[in-house]
Amino acid sequence: QLQLVESGGGLVQPGGSLRLSCVASGFTLGNYGVAWFRQAPGKKREAVSCVTKSGIATTFATSLKDRLTVSRDNGKNTVFLQMNSLIPEDTAVYYCATGIEYCSTFVNQYDSWGQGTQVTVSS
């Protein structure tokens, strides 16, 4: 069964950091690009960052520029999202998605999604 599972979310104070993980099972994640999206209550799902099959990383969310790093460990079938200097506006459910070799900001380009992990930034 093909599956993506995110973890690493939680409650963090403003200025704190979190490292999210996206672990794949049932298929080789290294054959695909992997994107991170987030969705805050009442808002559309937005693309945050992505790493291609070849390892090229891109940050889509300008508000997160210079505050996050996406990386992959193909040996562990895992992609990571390191987020630093978190602010309350980063509060959202974060999802990883895959299914294509490159990166795209369009939700419908991806056919495999995790269940999401909640990130809450609050004092």
Give your account of this protein's structure.
With 123 residues, the chain is an all-beta fold. Helix content is 0%, strand content 46%. It contains no helices and 11 strands. It has strands at residues 3-7, 10-12, 18-25, 34-39, 46-51, 57-59, 68-73, 78-83, 92-98, 112-113, 117-121. Strands 2, 4, 5, 6, 9, 10 and 11 form a 7-stranded mixed β-sheet that branches. It is globular and about 40 Å long. The mean pLDDT is 95.
- Main beta-sheet annotation: 7 strands, mixed
What is the count of helical runs?
0
> Quick one: how many beta strands?
11
Spatial gap, N to C terminus: 39 Å
Helix content: under 10%
Q: Topology, pairings included?
A:
Elements: E1 3-7, E2 10-12, E3 18-25, E4 34-39, E5 46-51, E6 57-59, E7 68-73, E8 78-83, E9 92-98, E10 112-113, E11 117-121
Parallel strand pairs: 2-11
Antiparallel strand pairs: 1-3, 3-8, 4-5, 4-9, 5-6, 7-8, 9-10, 9-11
Using brief descriptors, characterize the structure shown:
single chain, 123 residues, mainly beta, seven-stranded mixed beta sheet, four-stranded antiparallel beta sheet
